[in-house]
Amino acid sequence: MAQVRAASSGRRDDDAVPGDGVLPVLDALRELLPAGGLQRGSVVATGSWSLLCLALAAGASAAGAWCAIAGVPQLGVRAAADVGLDPGRMLLIAEPGPSWPQVVVSLLDGCELVLLRPPARPAPQPPAQVRRKLEAVIRRRGSVLIVAGEWDGAQSRLHVADQEWAGIGVGHGRLRARRVRVVADGRGAAARPRERWLWLPGPDGSVAVAADEFGAGGWSERATDPALASSG
Q: Is the distance from CB of 178 to CB of 166 less than 8 angstroms?
């Protein structure tokens, strides 16, 4: 819990990202969100852990927001930094433990953005009472919770519906980039489905808009979120 206390005491009023109630996202993701960014006081669910989770947090982190990532023990600082997160304003809580809701509340008190992968057991998603409590804290603090999992009532939901790897020729070559189709929907203003092809990552490691048509030399794989949890 020492890291959590450090986050709460380390945040200053001038650390908050300015904006009309919206945290910025990378340019490639703006059209997938109705406000063009992450609405403060909201929950965003991605269905599973993948590179998309980090990409959603990268824009706000690069703009100066404090970001915490909880429940992803395999994630390293370098991997997060490669997507665009600022290591100097990032907290990693590898194993928040059975009291993870209390840990998240503490993180929300010190960070504008929290990325959480809830425990898979005993249920596929947290109980309704826990979700309501955390949602109240999120609204009060004006923070954003990105959930790598299911979350009934999330204002926005995004998931990777398809993926294609680039770099493999006829039976040989190296994987250089991944092109994915991201589908978004949600509640209220986010109810209208949206989708976009993205490089996640691109050949240079960045996140960018991809063309609808994939050129020669690529290899296509239909992928569901659980498969992406290990590849992203």
A: yes
Q: What is the mean pLDDT of residues 168-176?
A: 56
Residue at a domain's end among 121, 147, 173: 147
Which residues, in sequence order, are CB contacts of 34 under 8 Å at separation 6+?
A: 156, 186, 188, 189, 190, 192
Once rounded to an integer, what is the mean pLDDT over residues 185-199? 92
Cα–Cα distance measured from residue 6 to residue 14, given in angstroms and rounded to the nearest whole number = 17
β-strand partners of 222: none
Q: In terms of residue numbers, what domain contains 210?
A: 158-231
Please report the sign of the dihedral spanned by the C-alpha atoms of residue 225, residue 73, residue 100, residue 109: negative
Q: For residue 104, report the phi and psi dihedrals to the nearest 5 degrees.
A: -65, -40
pLDDT at position 70 over 50: yes
- Give the number of domains in the chain: 2
- Looking at the structure, do residues 23 and 107 belong to the same domain, yes or no? yes
| φ, ψ at 101 (rounded to 5°) | -60, -40
Whether the pLDDT of residue 65 is over 50: the answer is: yes
